[in-house]
Design goal:
By secondary structure, the chain is mainly beta. It has one domain. Helices cover 11% and strands 30% of the residues. It contains two helices and ten strands; from the N terminus they run αββββββαββββ. Strands 1-10-9-8-6 form a five-stranded antiparallel sheet. Strands 3-2-4-5-7 form a five-stranded antiparallel sheet, with no helix packed on it. The chain is globular and about 40 Å long.
Length: 194
């Protein structure tokens, strides 16, 4: 119970600090940056440097014990045809988190948060795509391709959390590592900084 309260307090602090700043998303001091290393590309047994917690503002190898095991974003856990440039956000269960690729964009291109619906998954795990299907579609928004210069919106939704994050892939070394800039943003129905 104490850990739950501490996690919520940490999230409130992150959200409060992240919502202060300029008029367009990404302007001001609240833009964070992280480098994630492909789990498959580096042959990691656990998530080591491939998973990120927006609570802790750190990769999994840097998490405090309070946050351990609560990754919001993973890079390189999926590999198709030796390509591990995939983000994943949820494997199923009560976690409804979704990620959406917004295409090649800059931070200044956004002044509001795109809506990402969260509905229960039709499957517990993520099936592989069949001929003619995309991995994004069969994953129901839990997996998306990592592309340099693209922006993404994540609706983090779990039993005790509900918030939005936007990120941009600033650099990508294929199936090795990616550097992202990110920011917690208001939900779609709320105005950004005035």
């Amino acid at each position: 119970m104490l850990r739950e309260k501490q996690s919520r307090l940490l999230l409130m602090v992150v959200v409060t600090f992240s919502l202060c700043g300029g008029t367009a998303l990404g302007q001001g001091p609240t833009l964070h940056q992280a480098t994630l290393f492909s789990r498959n590309g580096h042959k990691e047994r656990d998530y080591a440097k491939s998973a990120y917690s927006f609570y802790a503002m750190a990769r999994s190898d840097q998490w405090p014990k309070l946050i351990k095991g609560r990754a919001h974003l993973m890079y390189g856990s999926v590999s198709l045809n030796n390509d591990s440039d995939w983000f994943s956000v949820s494997g199923g269960g009560p976690e409804l988190t979704r990620i959406k690729d917004l295409g090649e964009k800059q931070w200044a291109d956004f002044t509001s948060t795109p809506f990402v619906p969260v509905t229960p998954h039709s499957t517990e795990g993520i099936p592989g795509p069949k001929r003619g299907q995309s991995y994004e579609d069969v994953s129901e928004g839990r997996i998306t391709k990592v592309v340099a210069g693209h922006m993404y919106v994540i609706h983090v939704k779990g039993p005790q959390e509900d918030f939005y994050v936007m990120l941009r892939v600033d650099e990508l070394v294929p199936s090795d590592r990616c550097t992202i800039s990110w920011r917690v943003v208001p939900p779609p129905d709320e105005a950004w900084s005035k």
